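Action item from last meeting closed. Structure (482 res):
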């Protein structure tokens, strides 16, 4: 691509130097510049702004996009493109580099608490309706039917536009993307033109101030955003609503009503949160009556999300769920949501990771304390002692309620202990990993899937069925580490 063509899209204040050369790539990291690349100097990306510019030029950058008025000595080797907003210029450059893929797709943003689940449900809904779609979240990307984990680096405009270009090449019609706390600003920084924005959970209207001329349609919970043209969803109210809702351990059943259309619906949900997420996703789609009935037919499978309050299996009258809640706030919300469905005891397995501070570990323990039985275990201890981390969490449990705290740093054994002690009516909740399938211990990343481990333990338990050679039931007492 010619630099001249890129410059026309950037809206520069001033251009110095030749712009007839070819551009071979774009980056905001001066360390990865190779000859022929365009370097965009973001003010917050490097501590030493001038040094990074000179390093990029030394590495062969053909041009530098900068907000500063002067590049300093040595800069004439590269063209200087002066802009008012380097981040916006980077977004425009990235979009141009990939031939403006966002103009070929309907972009639907999702923000707020529960955004990941809502985004995944929406993508599944679109596929059910034969509308080819892509998905971008902090943990996973999907391009049509292809799935791959998100890389462990912050998402930028170039990576986002690359994914959009893949979707456009695969003939996708829609891209569903999860956004942060300031979704419109983030969308602008990524070079996205949002057609719709779904506000979930705690996403407040105060964080969504639409600039003049913005054509993004907002989709929000009833009462959260009063702007004219906003489409609302909720339980018992809104353009998209759940009526006659009944929740049990088997899921949620309700009448799904959209304007003047209605159909019976059942979703995989322990409580009403998944119902809310399903309604939010539905509100982003225009459905005729036949499509509404089709969606309701597949609603249970659409709303069964791996690692997100995932029902693993049923034991001897008890149930086991897996969830990715890994901090105090998330665990607190989770326990409040599932408590009404624990007919007897709520047994929770959880632990902190090496990346958590001592204060965060204690707070996590305090969040585990309301469980009838809290089993503290390890969760990616890294190079730290899992015993030390576990005891820091246990102190948090004891700060809320006195008494014995069960500690088992072997995570598989902790899950086995929870299942071994469960009785009819109990509910087991395994927290911390969710859909993650690895464990980091002593610098070694090994496979570990909470759901699969629980499934195997339950299968083995059913296989041996607790019978000794004489045919009588054998009672076993789980061993705990204090």
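Sequence:
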């Amino acid at each position: 691509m010619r630099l001249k063509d890129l410059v026309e899209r950037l809206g520069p204040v001033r251009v110095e130097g030749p712009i007839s050369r070819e551009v071979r790539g774009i980056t905001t990291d001066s360390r990865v510049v190779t000859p022929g690349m365009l370097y965009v100097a973001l003010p917050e990306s490097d501590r030493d702004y001038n040094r990074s510019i000179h390093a990029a030029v030394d590495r062969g950058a053909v041009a530098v996009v900068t907000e500063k008025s002067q590049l300093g000595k040595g800069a004439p080797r590269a063209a200087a493109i002066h802009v008012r907003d380097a981040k916006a210029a980077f977004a425009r450059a990235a979009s141009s580099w990939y031939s403006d893929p966002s103009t070929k797709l309907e972009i639907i943003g999702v923000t707020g608490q529960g955004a990941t689940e809502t985004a995944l449900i929406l993508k599944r809904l679109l596929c059910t309706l034969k509308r080819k779609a892509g998905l971008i979240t902090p943990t996973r990307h999907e391009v049509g039917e292809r799935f791959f984990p998100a890389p462990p680096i912050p998402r930028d405009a170039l990576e986002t536009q690359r994914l959009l270009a893949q979707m456009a090449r695969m003939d996708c019609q829609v891209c569903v993307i999860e956004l942060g706390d300031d979704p419109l600003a983030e969308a602008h920084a990524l070079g996205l033109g949002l057609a719709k924005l779904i506000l979930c959970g705690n996403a407040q209207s105060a964080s969504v101030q639409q600039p003049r001329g913005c054509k993004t349609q907002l989709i929000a919970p009833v009462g959260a955003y009063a702007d004219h043209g906003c489409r609302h969803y909720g339980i018992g109210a809104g353009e998209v609503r759940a009526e006659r809702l009944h929740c049990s351990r088997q899921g949620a059943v309700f009448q799904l009503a959209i304007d003047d259309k209605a159909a019976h619906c059942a979703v995989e949900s322990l409580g009403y949160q998944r119902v809310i997420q399903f309604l939010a996703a539905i509100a982003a789609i225009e459905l005729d009556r036949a499509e509404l009935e089709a969606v309701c037919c597949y609603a249970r499978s659409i709303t069964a999300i791996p690692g997100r309050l995932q029902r693993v299996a049923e034991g001897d009258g008890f149930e086991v769920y897996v969830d990715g809640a890994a901090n105090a706030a998330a665990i607190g919300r989770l326990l409040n949501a599932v408590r009404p469905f624990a007919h007897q005891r709520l047994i929770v397995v959880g632990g902190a990771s090496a990346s958590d501070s001592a204060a965060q570990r204690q707070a996590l323990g305090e969040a585990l304390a309301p469980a009838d039985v809290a089993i503290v275990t390890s969760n990616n201890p890294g190079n730290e002692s899992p015993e030390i981390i576990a005891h820091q969490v246990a102190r948090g449990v004891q700060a809320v309620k006195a008494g014995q705290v069960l500690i088992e740093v072997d995570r598989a054994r902790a899950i086995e202990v929870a299942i071994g002690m469960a009785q009819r009516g109990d509910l087991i909740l395994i927290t911390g990993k969710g859909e993650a399938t690895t464990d980091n211990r002593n610098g070694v990343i090994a496979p570990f899937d909470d759901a699969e481990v629980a499934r195997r333990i339950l299968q083995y338990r059913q296989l041996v069925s607790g019978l000794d050679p004489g045919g009588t039931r054998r009672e076993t007492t789980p061993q705990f580490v204090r």
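Note appended to the action item: The chain has three domains: 3-97, 101-302, 310-464.
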